[in-house]
Each structure stands twice: as C-alpha cells, then as structure tokens.
TrEMBL record:
UniProt-recorded name of the protein: Acetyltransferase
PANTHER family with a match to the protein in the record: AMINOALKYLPHOSPHONATE N-ACETYLTRANSFERASE-RELATED-RELATED (PTHR43877)
Taxonomic lineage of the native organism: Bacteria, Pseudomonadati, Pseudomonadota, Alphaproteobacteria, Rhodobacterales
Gene: ElaA
Organism encoding this protein: Sulfitobacter pacificus
Keywords recorded for this protein, A-Z: Acyltransferase, Transferase
Domain N-acetyltransferase: 1-138
CDD domains: NAT_SF (cd04301)
Coiled coil: none
PROSITE patterns for this protein: GNAT
C-alpha cells in the first residue's frame, strides 16, 4: 500500500468518502453529516494511487484543534491508515492549537486512547451513534 496523506482543497472528494462511510454504511442522515464547517476547516485526504481512500478534517478555534469526520474506506481498514490520518492531523495542528479534541464513537475509544487521547465527560448521542469526547495535549 502506497497511500499518501496531505492537506487538500478537494472538499468534494472528502465529502464523497464521508457519504460512503457515514451516510451509506452507518446510516447517518445527510442533515447530520453535512454542516457549515467544511469551509472553515483544514482537510486531510488519503490517496492510494489516484483513489481517495480516507479523510479527516480539523477545525481550529480558541486554542483547540477539533479533529472530526475521520473515515477510511472498508478496503483500507485494518491497514493503519486511520491511525496515520490522526497522526497527520496532530502534526498539522501543532503550533496552531494547544490541545486536540475529538468526538469518538464509543467502539473506537481504545483506538484513540492508543494514540494518546483521554476520554472526558459522559457518553452522548451524535446522529444516533454513542460518542464520547476525548482530549490530547499537542
């Protein structure tokens, strides 16, 4: 696998990946997936050859880098790509924020803990999926 991850302006490719994973696979409504933050976020796109296979976005405000909309196509899950996306998001955020925050689906808490995040606060519902906020110093 020769996947590259970089900042991108191709929000359309990122949204296509998010549609496949969040709307089609996980049943998240389009109203919950599409918001008005894309234009104010940094976007990461993972490309395998010339095919988009993963994405994440970073919203930086008030010293906090909120990492979200992290997804990887089924074909590339289990390869370490999700962790690579998070590490790249952390690298991009350093110097722009003091902490990184994300809302993790509860089944993925261990994945994010292995990347240095600590769960905070109670479990909450986001688009019908249980989540928990997590923080990590940058």
């Amino acid at each position: 696998m020769s996947v590259t991850i970089s900042l991108t302006d191709d929000i359309s490719a990122c949204r296509t990946l998010r549609r496949i994973v969040f709307i089609d696979e996980q049943g998240v409504s389009e109203a919950d997936e599409i918001d008005d933050l894309d234009d104010s976020c940094l976007h990461l796109l993972a490309i395998d050859g010339n095919i988009p296979v993963g994405t994440a976005r970073i919203h930086i405000a008030k010293g906090l880098a909120k990492i979200g909309r992290v997804c990887v196509l089924k074909s590339h899950r289990g390869t370490g790509l999700g962790a690579a996306l998070i590490r790249k998001a952390l690298d991009v955020s350093r110097g722009k924020a003091a902490q990184a925050k994300l809302g993790a689906q509860t089944h993925a808490l261990g994945f994010y803990e292995a990347l240095g995040f600590v769960a905070t606060g109670p479990v909450y519902d986001d688009a019908g999926i249980p989540h928990r906020d997590m923080l990590r110093d940058l």
